[in-house]
Each structure stands twice: as C-alpha cells, then as structure tokens.
Amino acid sequence: MSTEHSSSGRRVLIGRVVSDKMDKTVTVEVTRTVKHRRYHKFVTRRKKYKAHDENNECKVDDTVLIQESRPLSRHKRWVVVERR
Fold first, then answer.
1. Most exposed among 25, 50, 64, 74, judged by the fewest C-beta atoms under 10 Å?
2. DSSP code of 40?
3. Which residues have C-beta within 8 Å of that of residue 41, sequence separation ≥ 6?
4. Which is it for strands 78-83 and 63-68: parallel, antiparallel or unpaired?
5. What is the mean pLDDT of residues 78-84?
6. Which residues 6+ apart lie within 8 Å of 11 measured at CB?
7. Could you give all domains of the chain from N- to C-terminal order, each with its CATH number?
8. Model confidence at 80, in pLDDT bands (50, 70, 90)?
C-alpha cells in the first residue's frame, strides 16, 4: 500500500488485517510494489507486522492505518491508528 511519515516522525503504513486471533493484537499485511533491479518488471512485496489493537475492534480483511511505536512486546512495535 503506502508509506508515509506522521508529524511525530514515526512511520505510518496502510495494510490489510490477515489475523485477529490474538488478544489486543492483529497481524497486518502491507503490500508494496518495487521495480526489479535487473529485469525492470514490477514485483509485489509483502510483509506482515503485529500491531496493537486496544479494543479488539479490527476484523479480518479490514484496511487499517498502523503507526510505529515503542516496543510493546517481543514482536509488537506498531499500533493501529484507524480503521478504513
């Protein structure tokens, strides 16, 4: 999707929720397209992030905006800012 910077300087990403089975945590898949260095074709790259969802309101297939934060657990470094 896209990468932006908020006014606080923290990264902001847009992605799709692929799992909501954990308590107060969702797994968000961020998709981006990059141009291959040798073949000059556009390739899809995907990465999954674990994000904090305080009220357990995000469901699978929701589009969400996540923002970088301090480490909240071993793998969680993102917070859900809004559902779209």
1. 74
2. -
3. 35
4. antiparallel
5. 95
6. 3, 4, 5, 67, 68
7. 3-83 (2.40.50.140)
8. very high
